[in-house]
Amino acid sequence: MSEILAVDLGGTNIRVARFPSAQPPATNLSKTPTHAAEGTEAVVARILQAIDALAPPSRSGMRIGIGAPGPLDPRRGRVFGAPNLPGWTDVPLRDLVAAHFGCPVAIGNDANLAALAEWRFGAGRGSSDMIYLTISTGIGGGVISDGRLLLGTHGLAAEVGHMTIQMDGPVCSCGQRGHLEAIASGPGIARIAAQRLAAGEASTLRDQADGKRELTAEAVGRAARQGDPLASRVIDEAAVAIGCHLANLLHAYNPQVVVFGGGVMQLGDLLLPRIEATARAQVMHPAYLEGFRIARAELGDDVGLIGAMTLASEL
Amino acid sequence: MSEILAVDLGGTNIRVARFPSAQPPATNLSKTPTHAAEGTEAVVARILQAIDALAPPSRSGMRIGIGAPGPLDPRRGRVFGAPNLPGWTDVPLRDLVAAHFGCPVAIGNDANLAALAEWRFGAGRGSSDMIYLTISTGIGGGVISDGRLLLGTHGLAAEVGHMTIQMDGPVCSCGQRGHLEAIASGPGIARIAAQRLAAGEASTLRDQADGKRELTAEAVGRAARQGDPLASRVIDEAAVAIGCHLANLLHAYNPQVVVFGGGVMQLGDLLLPRIEATARAQVMHPAYLEGFRIARAELGDDVGLIGAMTLASEL
Questions:
Q1: β-strand A63-68 against B4-9: which pairing, if any?
Q2: Cα separation, B9 vs B7, whole angstroms
């Protein structure tokens, strides 16, 4: 039997899971602090140790799948760098791990692998064309097109949160202007609410903002649930922006299903009806809506590990 | 030898070409007025006649490729309808033609087939990931992803001109707001120039606008070439909008090459440098630009026929 070890490399933790039968659930899981500030070599050494600790005694037939943040080239197996992994510039992670264990290794962008996981084992099961959107501190995702992960020439396709929907909009974490992430990510929602408060609008959020605690999307959502008009407007505008962008993505990829994940989806009951209504109203032809559905991600915190396992299962 | 008959169905003309060796150039070409106002049956009858007139005496092994405007489903062979083909709603064009000639038939969206043609025989030769953008009365295109035409579940993917880049922007021909087409198509450029004139801005274009001739993008381009400040600003803003959207498309599809075609590219010398500079400045990571290039379409007016031939060659 061919075992798969899956790695989810994050800025905070390195998570590893063992999948003896190339499907969920994992039989063993481990979590190690990344200590990203110690730099590339130290982190790579910790990844190798973490895999080693969980690998089966016999490593014949073992395969390894790795999800990593930031832009990376899955075909060349290189991580270009990520904001939360200082010092990582063009690291040949795949070949480093493959050389150490002498087995096949595949790497992928964490958001792409989450898309792969939701497609094979989660909310996108059975579809041929799917978009996964994770709305959290950032907005990322992945696209399945005709039964395959859409990669593009360097594996950088499907950066679905980094597209301009308002040319004169707010500046994004990536430095560009008017991206969906700048408008509707958790920090985007919090920033827009804070700006409205600073402009003098009345809101129950004022006490929090004055109390020097930083405003969060969660707090804005809580205030919206209690009927605060400013918070409700900010949440509504975020949902309209996501819905508008979703229509763009339907025109770009024509999927059967769009799966929403990420922490901001804890406000899903506030956001999703408006997202869906906006997208349906803004597609250019009703044929885009034939058989189309929106779903919530099903795989929770292990989605990255399941995606890395799925990627390795194709080796 | 397996002959291919290619059809380019337009709102004005039905063009047919014979490709005896499944590659350009065509050996015979014909052009018949569509008379679209006469409705679906009459137009389909004219398509059949036009193919018949050009088909070889022996039809064994013949294949037919058809490009048609508007949204259509290439897998089911149905044309959903197009603004310039009144009465066409969900017409099973592929099967009607296949039943008549008793041979394999494939249909595709005209912009997608132009992309296929430029990829196989034109400016995108040799690439694995390509975007074709045609900027004309409308803005359309097609995407080649990992060596295949990107279709989506109903063949409606890659509507690359119908994506919102300015949520409060002008209304598009499709009825939605802030699409690239509304801002940077030929009519979009002319409309923005006309609005600036109406608002009282000084320009050499005023004589034309006052003379009741409708302002065109061509006229705006001519005035820009002669140094007219209003015209220059309008052209520059269109180029910036296209460049901004091009960065979006790089994030969506991560292509090696983007091919620009369409009538507005007669202003390419005015537009392309600014389009390219804007897109390069607005990508979120320099890896998108590794090996990336912008090219002008090479195949001219026959691009649709060559695309239909290419599609049929895969049957």
A1: unpaired
A2: 6
Residue B17 has pLDDT above 80, yes or no: yes
Contact (CB<8Å) A145/B164: no
Q: Is it the case that residue B275 has pLDDT exceeding 60?
A: yes
Q: How confident is the model at residue A81 (pLDDT cuts 50, 70, 90)?
A: confident
CB A290 within 8 A of CB A119: no
Quick one: closest CA in A to B242, which residue? Answer: A167
Q: What is the dihedral of CA A291, A297, A302, A307, to 10 degrees?
A: 30
Where does B125-297 sit in CATH, by number? Answer: 3.30.420.40
First to last CA, chain B: 14
Interval A142-164 mean pLDDT = 97
| Interacting residues of B174 by C-beta distance below 8 A, sequence separation 6+ | A284, A285, B162, B181
- Report pLDDT digits (tens) over B80-95: 877 788 888 889 999 9
Beta pairing class for A257-261 and A13-19: unpaired
Averaged pLDDT score across all residues of chain B: 94
Looking at per-residue pLDDT, the higher value among A281 and A207 belongs to A281
| CB < 8 Å to A280, chain B | none
Q: Give the residue on B whose Cα is nearest the Cα of A292.
A: B153
Contacts of B160 (CB under 8 A, 6+ apart): A251, A252, B131, B133, B139, B140, B141, B142, B143, B180, B249
For chain A, the C-alpha Rg in angstroms (whole number) is 20
B284 DSSP 8-state letter: S
B95-125 exposure pattern, b = at least 16 Cβ within 10 A, e = fewer: ebbbebbebebbbbbbbbbbbbbbbbbbbbe
C-alpha pair distances (Å), B194 with each of B135, B170, B207, B209, B215: 19, 13, 12, 7, 7
Amino acid at B146: D
Which pTM does this prediction carry? 0.95
Q: How many residues does chain A have?
A: 315
pLDDT tens per residue, range A223-258: 999 999 999 999 999 999 999 999 999 999 999 999
Structural domain boundaries in chain B: 4-116+302-313, 125-297
Domain A126-297 in the same topology as domain A4-116+302-313: yes
Contacts of B66 (CB under 8 A, 6+ apart): B6, B7, B9, B47, B93, B94, B97, B105, B106, B107, B108, B308
- Which of B127, B154, B236 is the best residue to mutate to test the A interface, defined by the most A CB atoms within 10 Å of its own CB? B154
Helix H or strand E segment including A128: none
Beta bridge partners of B105: B64
CATH class of the region B4-116+302-313:
alpha beta
Cα(A17)–Cα(A4) distance, integer angstroms: 8
Report how far residue B313's alpha carbon sits from residue B300's, in angstroms, rounded to the nearest whole number.
Answer: 20
ipTM above 0.90, yes or no: yes
Q: What is the DSSP letter of B205?
A: T
Nearest CA in chain A to B289: A154
DSSP code at position A140: E
**Fold held by A126-297:** Nucleotidyltransferase; domain 5 (3.30.420)
- Is the pLDDT assigned to residue A189 strictly greater than 70? yes
C-alpha A181: how far from chain center = 12
For residue B241, give the nearest of A123, A234, A167, A153 by alpha carbon.
A167
